[in-house]
Design brief:
With 275 residues, the protein is mainly alpha-helical. The chain has two domains: 137 residues, no CATH class; 137 residues, no CATH class. Strands 1-2 form a two-stranded antiparallel sheet. Strands 3-4 form a two-stranded antiparallel ribbon. It is globular. The termini are far apart. The model has no long low-confidence stretch (mean pLDDT 88).
């Protein structure tokens, strides 16, 4: 199958799944985000650790699942936030497991388990607080965040491919040789335009100036998130984190920007009492 056709079909399927998870009900949302989180953690651990320490890796992923479920229960059903600390129990078990590892020459690889938990599980678990307001599920804000990031990706790709490879300077050539400053500004322009449209259509209830600033800070954070994942892949000489989405690579390749953009976006909104 032609790669463009393959990318288009899988892209449409991906967006359809995201819309279902974000707009139907809280249970579909939880299933979708748990699936995304688990796949991303599997990809990250496979990339950084190969086939070693399978039980410890599984325990770290289980810790991520527990964290997500507990935060979901807090946001959706008002369960006491104190229970979220229970998610640390599997992490402590991973630490104990590391002491019984027979091969101590690669003990440092256990640090990747804690990194994967902090890098992937924590931001996705905290996304529950974007999807719920006073216990009521509404994926509109979360969808709006995705729209800003997707618009940025499209703008960066189109303008970067058309002009960035021939004109201007590269953004971060030692990490991602194809990214350019033209692509960066194209992505930011599209992110701001998307955010303005979200405001005009009523999906954002705060003033336009905040919609514009929110798009800018999320776009910048998203670029750093993309570069951060690219640094990991370059360190292990990989092009993609996986191949679960035909023509698009792995799940981590698709959500790398959001892992930094979403926390920054939420922080901005909290600081200015927008949520």
């Amino acid at each position: 199958m032609n790669n463009t056709v393959k990318r288009s079909i899988s892209g449409v399927g991906f967006i359809a799944a995201m819309l279902l998870g974000l707009l139907v009900n809280k249970y579909l949302f939880a299933v979708l985000f748990l699936f995304i989180m688990i796949v991303m953690m599997i990809e990250f651990y496979r990339m950084t650790m190969g086939d070693k320490y399978k039980w410890s890796r599984a325990t770290a992923i289980f810790a991520g699942v527990i964290l997500f479920v507990l935060v979901f229960m807090v946001a959706a059903f008002g369960v006491k936030v104190d229970y979220v600390g229970l998610a640390l129990v599997p992490i402590i078990i991973v630490m104990i497991f590391s002491l019984y590892s027979k091969d101590k020459t690669e003990f440092w690889k256990f640090s990747h388990m804690y990194t994967g938990f902090l890098y992937i599980a924590v931001p996705l678990a905290l996304s529950n607080f974007i999807a719920f307001k006073h216990g009521e599920f509404s994926g509109t804000l979360l969808l709006s965040f995705f729209i800003i990031i997707w618009a940025s990706d499209v703008g960066a790709f189109v303008l970067g491919s058309a002009f960035g490879q021939k004109y201007g300077k590269k953004l971060f050539p030692e990490i991602s040789p194809k990214k350019s400053w033209i692509g960066f500004w194209g992505g930011m322009l599209c992110a701001v335009l998307a955010s303005c449209i979200l405001k005009l259509t009523g999906m954002f209830e705060f003033p336009m100036v905040h919609a514009i600033i929110l798009a800018i800070v999320m776009d910048i954070a998203g670029v750093y998130g993309d570069l951060f994942e690219s640094q990991w892949k370059r360190s292990f000489d990989l092009k993609d984190s996986g191949n679960i989405i035909p023509g698009h690579g792995g799940m981590l390749d698709r959500f790398d920007s959001t892992l930094m953009a979403f926390p920054v976006g939420v922080l901005y909104m909290v600081l200015f009492n927008l949520i």
